[in-house]
């Protein structure tokens, strides 16, 4: 069993663990298992060992929050000497001359960047496969690990690394976290927005424990206070298992996870009762337009002829949506008014994270656009609206389904600035209902 990030960092700071040895062990695990898991697009073996040696020699080692911790980074992030492919052969491949903000903050905290994780082209889909590999669910490899942070989720759930970075535009952290039995946090747009997809995309952590998710969030957000997980009391929680607007059926075992979590949170002293916002139909249309137009905007720097067939269709639709003026601020404002109305009487909303079971693992990038859209829309019914609102949300493991062997989970959402509240509730669920940390446990 791989140590938690907190355990590694504590031991490295105390001088009882060597960062180089920790990194070498992580690289050994990757070499042994990633041929099946498919989590990494690029493993930085030599570079990571050199970086670990630099961490070991740092004069501030005893104060580093991620001292010697191997971290996987989603393949969308600038790392000196590497290029971010965004899951595509059509984009620029010139190595970055320096670290971007995310890599720089991770290094400053003492993390060792062991590799870049697999994503679907332009991060559009909740299945992370590329021509050179398929990110599989470590719990049941016949299923996809999710997307677009599917490689990051697979790396953590397989026990290859204790922590991974992801981004979330319509659920791209929470969906793979739910599929792979992890804690996955989408911060509010005011914390870590990267500007992508018209402000809907944010950076965040994937981890096996709440404490690990909190420390990675604190590093990514450059806010040490976020590493402290509170123990909240008397929280007003509304629960809903009805897919917003579409009202499509949700598998019974995904609904049961909400019932189980509700009982645990009631026992912890919180008020839990059915309740949900009044979702406007226009919000669904708003996120759909941004889902197409966001990648279309990014694709301006790519060779259109080399994009995958499904991506070319998606980009063309996005161009049409943007040209037709479907990216409207008033759509977001109308939804925000409804969300604020709900949160005037509630502190947290709890739903299933997934609205359907994951897709099977496969070469989805070879299939047509419509064949990819159907499983994508079935999965993300509960997640995408909160990217449009910019509210923080977290996916928390609850159980495992008897029908598939896959994890089940719940999503907790709160007002902007409430990331610590979500982490505190997640920690209470973790304490009352411990989950297996990895599929290799």
From TrEMBL:
Matching SUPFAM superfamilies: Amidase signature (AS) enzymes
Annotated ranges, domain Amidase: 22-423
Stored InterPro entries: Amidase, Amidase_dom, AS_sf
A Pfam family the protein falls into: Amidase
Signal peptide positions on this chain: none
Similarity remark: Belongs to the amidase family.
Protein name, as recorded: Amidase family protein
Organism of provenance: Amycolatopsis heterodermiae
């Amino acid at each position: 069993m791989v140590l938690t990030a907190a355990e590694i960092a504590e031991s490295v700071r105390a001088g009882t663990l060597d960062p180089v040895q920790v990194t070498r062990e992580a690289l050994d695990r990757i070499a042994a298992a990633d041929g099946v898991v498919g989590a990494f697009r690029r493993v930085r073996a030599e570079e990571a060992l050199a970086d670990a040696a630099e961490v070991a020699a740092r004069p501030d080692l005893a104060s580093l929050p991620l001292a010697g911790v191997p971290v996987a980074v989603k393949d969308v992030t600038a790392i000196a000497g590497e290029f971010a492919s965004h899951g595509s052969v059509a984009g620029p491949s010139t190595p970055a001359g320096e670290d971007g903000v995310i890599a720089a903050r991770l290094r400053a905290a003492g993390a060792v960047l062991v590799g870049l994780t697999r994503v679907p082209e332009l991060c559009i889909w909740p299945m992370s496969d590329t021509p050179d590999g398929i990110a599989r669910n470590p719990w049941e490899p016949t299923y996809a690990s999710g997307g677009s942070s599917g490689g990051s989720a697979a790396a953590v759930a397989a026990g290859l690394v204790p922590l991974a970075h992801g981004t979330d535009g319509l659920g791209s952290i929470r969906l793979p976290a739910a599929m792979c039995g992890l804690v996955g946090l989408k911060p509010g747009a005011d914390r870590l927005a990267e500007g992508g997809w018209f402000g809907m995309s944010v950076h965040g952590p994937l981890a096996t424990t709440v404490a690990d998710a909190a420390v990675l969030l604190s590093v990514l957000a450059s806010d040490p206070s976020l590493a402290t997980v509170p123990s909240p009391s008397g929280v007003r929680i509304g629960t809903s298992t009805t897919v917003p607007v579409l009202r499509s059926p949700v598998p019974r075992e995904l609904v049961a996870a909400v019932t189980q979590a509700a009982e645990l949170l009631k026992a912890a002293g919180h008020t839990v009762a059915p309740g949900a916002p009044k979702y406007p139909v226009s919000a669904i249309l708003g996120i759909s337009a941004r889902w197409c137009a966001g990648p279309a905007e990014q694709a301006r720097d790519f060779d259109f002829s080399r994009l995958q067939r499904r991506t070319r269709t998606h980009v063309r639709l996005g161009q049409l949506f943007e040209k037709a003026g479907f990216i409207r601020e008033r759509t977001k404002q109308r939804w925000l008014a409804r969300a604020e109305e709900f949160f005037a009487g509630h502190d947290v909303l709890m739903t299933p994270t997934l609205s359907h079971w994951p897709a099977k693992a496969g070469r989805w990038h070879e299939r047509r656009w419509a064949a990819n859209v159907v499983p994508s829309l079935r999965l993300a019914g509960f997640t995408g609206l909160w990217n449009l609102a910019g509210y923080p949300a977290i996916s928390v493991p609850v159980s495992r389904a008897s029908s598939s062997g896959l994890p089940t989970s719940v999503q907790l959402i709160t007002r902007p600035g409430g990331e610590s509240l979500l982490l505190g509730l997640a920690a209470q669920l973790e304490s009352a209902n411990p989950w297996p940390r990895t599929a290799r446990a």
